[in-house]
Amino acid sequence: MSTSHPHNTDRSVVERTLSILECFNTRNTALTVSEISRRSGLPVATTYRIVAKLLSWGALERGTGNRYSIGLRLWEVASLTPRHSALRSAAIPHMVQLQRETNSPVFLSVRDRLEGVWLEGVWGNGGPWHGSLGTGNRFPLYASAFGRVLLAHADPAVQDEVYSGGLRALTEHTATDPLILRSLVNEVKTRGYAVADSELFDGVWAAAAPVRDGSGAVVASVGLCRDSADDGALYQRVRPVLAAARRLSQELAQLQPNEDATRRRPTQPRVA
What we know:
The chain has helices spanning 6-21, 33-40, 44-57, 72-78, 82-102, 145-152, 156-163, 178-191, 234-255; strands at residues 60-62, 68-70, 106-112, 115-122, 138-140, 194-197, 204-212, 218-227.
């Protein structure tokens, strides 16, 4: 006769619940129980029971056609993440200023293991706009200016794992050759910024620069997106991004004073 293990059962419930939440992404924002069951690999009865619990707590919300979406309660809990709350609060005024200066959507991103996460965005009336750019969504590090900044300052082991992980082309312009990508990422550290044209989305040009904390460590990337057809010299496009990253880094240094900060001066960006 088998013996029940409460701890294993609890872990199983948690894993099943997380598998249901993982069914939702930018392409699947509203799902039926049947769709959730199919995507999670759970029986319909089990899925329905967990969905009902998540609904009562507020992690999910029910819309038209018995379709479920992520609930406001879950967003409220996620917004309490202490790891980036100070960063977001400090960044928003500088992002607003950059958006007003350039009339372009401005984004702040951080790295989570092998992916980037859009931590904050300021759009204004400028374009371009893509649903995948929404706050909280993930993106591959290798295929964007924002991600390459984060990748350039990641541990070599992280870089090697990305380069060897099978680089999928998101557009016909995405760099997928590991040797070419390694060269582009290394160039970021030399220049102090990254640019990418139509690699994450067709017709979208982006520039990003590193954001440093009081110790000089890169904790985020900030930048903007523009239409690839926009006129303007590279220097004119990149200069306001570098200025915004510098202002934000200075503010973070004041929030987190560090005795070594004055000794670790980052290399001055070089605009080619």
